[in-house]
Amino acid sequence: MRVLVTGGGGFIGSHLVDALLARGDEPVVLDDWSGGSRDNLPPGVETLDMDVADPRTVSAIAALRPDGIIHGAAQVSVPRSMADPDRDRAVNVVGTAHVLAGAREAGSPRVVFLSTGGGIYGESDGADEMTLPQPKSYYSAHKYLAERYLEYSGLPYAIARLANVYGPRQRSDLEGGVVAIFTERLSAGQPITIYGSGEQYRDFVYVADVVDAVLTMLDSSVDGMWNVATGEATTVNALLAALQERLGSASAIVHEPPRPGDVFASRLSIDRIKADLGWSPRYDLAAGLDAMLK
Ligand SMILES: NC(=O)c1ccc[n+]([C@@H]2O[C@H](COP(=O)([O-])OP(=O)(O)OC[C@H]3O[C@@H](n4cnc5c(N)ncnc54)[C@H](O)[C@@H]3O)[C@@H](O)[C@H]2O)c1
User: Fold this and answer.
1) What sequence ranges are listed for the domain NAD-dependent epimerase/dehydratase (predicted)?
2) Are 139 and 75 in contact (CB under 8 A)?
3) How far apart are CA 72 and CA 18, in angstroms?
């Protein structure tokens, strides 16, 4: 099966490409390389060098005629979305509309969209898919809007509301990737900065589990929206302790005031995806960190 992976040169997208190749599918990557890298991809993968905000995306997808689409290309930075909401909208909303129009012209393959549970729910402790969305940034609001485009498109679709994903190839220079940032700084003997008390918590899900969930959604014929998470809360302090156990103690820990816009609590319910699709995560935090650092 030929599967178009938009954003396939990025962190999550490149793991999806690996998994598709491993099971005998033919992934094609559409990426503008603004955040991803060709080094993330094995040699020989077909690529379309394109910005999804460019309307020519529609005809490019129509010509490709993929059997399935995973749409992960996105402006992923919350601060950048606040500084330049127009660009965020052009990529995350209009870009998604282009991908959907291309899909329609290509014969209506199934589209799986990588959305954000952490961003859409705002403060959450066990948010499920019926929880009132309270996006606190243009990024999250635009992701929420893009989800509606999927729903109204008439195409077969699935929406993956991802929690905080971590694993190999996650960039440490972007905000949000706290696991990647701590790992890099501990490995380099650099001090660690914690914003606030460190008792704020997140739902950290390992990238291999996310790949499994997204491919399960691609293969399913059920339309819908599912959280992809562990259902477990891990405080930033607990995360740091787990990483220090594996990488050695931090040279120093610096506390700074909480950053504006950061939520304190983020944990998602995974009851719906378990019931509907039979998916549950295989990696708890310890197993995920061990796999990442192997
Ligand atoms: N990493 C997480 O914890 C997380 C959580 C929730 C949702 N998501 C979503 O998952 C998807 C992948 O995120 P990631 O963490 O792998 O980030 P990433 O930055 O590694 O991947 C995004 C990819 O999209 C590409 N891209 C960006 N703008 C583009 C454009 N205009 N046209 C074409 N390609 C473009 C980038 O070059 C990159 O390869 C995104 O849609 C993101 O919103 C990620």
Assistant:
1) 3-228
2) yes
3) 15
Secondary structure class of 49 (helix, strand, coil)? strand
- φ/ψ of residue 124, rounded to 5: -155, 140
Q: Which atom of ligand 1 is nearest to the CA of 143?
A: 43
Other residues' Cβ atoms within 10 Å of the Cβ of residue 49? 12
CB 120 less than 6 A from any atom of ligand 1: no
How is residue 180 written in tokens?
């990647």
Q: Which residue out of 17, 30, 76, 88 has the highest number of ligand 1 atoms within 8 Å of its CB and is therefore the one to mutate?
A: 76
For residue 137 and ligand 1, the question of a CB distance below 6 A is answered with no
The residue whose CA has the least distance to atom 11 of ligand 1 is 72
Measured from the Cα of 73, ligand 1's closest atom is 24
Given a contact cutoff of 8 angstroms between Cβ atoms, the answer to whether 165 and 210 are in contact is yes
**Residue 22 CB neighbours (<10 A):** 9
- Spatial neighbors of 164 by CB under 8 A, at least 6 apart, are 118, 176, 178, 179, 202, 203, 204, 205, 266
Calpha distance 214→33 (Å, rounded): 22
Burial classification of residue 67, based on how many CB atoms lie within 10 Å of its CB (0-12 exposed, 13-18 middle, 19 or more buried): middle
Are 28 and 48 within 8 A, CB to CB? yes
Q: Which domains does the chain have, with CATH numbers?
A: 2-165+204-228 (3.40.50.720), 167-203+232-268+278-293 (3.90.25.10)
pLDDT tens-digit series, residues 182-223 = 999 999 999 999 999 999 999 999 999 999 999 999 999 999
Pocket test for ligand 1, best of 4, 12, 16 (most atoms within 8 A of CB): 12
End-to-end Cα spacing for the chain: 31
